[in-house]
Amino acid sequence: MVREISAGGIVFRGADPGWQIAVIEPQSELARATPLTGGKKVAQKVVFALPKGLVDAGEKPDQTAVREVWEETGLRATLVVKLGDIRYVYTRTWGDQQLVFKIVSFYLLRYVSGRIDDIATEMRIEVKRALWMPLEEAVRKLAYRGEKDMAKRAEDYLKTHREL
Questions:
Q1: Closest CA relative to residue 70, chosen from 119, 109, 23
Q2: Residues 43, 149, 47, CA angle at the centre, nearest 5°?
Q3: What are the pLDDT digits (tens) for 117-161?
Q4: Whole-model pTM above 0.70?
Q5: Is residue 71 a contact partner of residue 52, using CB atoms and an 8 Å limit?
Q6: What local confidence, expressed as pLDDT, does residue 33 receive?
Q7: Partner of 119 for a Cys bridge, out of 73, 113, 123, 150, CB 3.0 to 4.6 A?
Q8: Which structural domains are found in the chain, ordered by start?
Q9: How many other C-beta atoms are found inside a 10 Å radius of the C-beta of residue 79?
Q10: DSSP assignment, residue 123?
């Protein structure tokens, strides 16, 4: 089984009346025609996720999280704390169809600068858009259970660390 190590970040900023985090809508075909739809294009559900990506050679996971946040959201951020790891197995749907054991480390990051969704053109292959979302809303709207859990951890951390 192939192993993949990735890292991602939950970038937060203060907002009235609470916290906001940066989320992405990954790029996908917005409409797809299939035999089941009679050849008509059908809109797909909007998916929200956290910015993340593979750890490059010589890079530490926390550095990857900061880099991926920059690349996928346009935001500069600094490390606060590691929130935890998500572990899962999936089958690649491209190329070799191999079974992959994946670990994604997530970090809480404080927003420093940048404009949300101001990303390089070449990143549009991966990211349709990036946006600020209230943290409480993100806990409900993120598409993946592990990422929802990380958002909840971020929420709990921020509640107990008011100095941030």
A1: 119
A2: 10
A3: 999 999 999 999 999 999 999 999 999 999 999 999 999 999 999
A4: yes
A5: no
A6: 43
A7: 123
A8: 2-29+45-160 (3.90.79.10)
A9: 14
A10: G
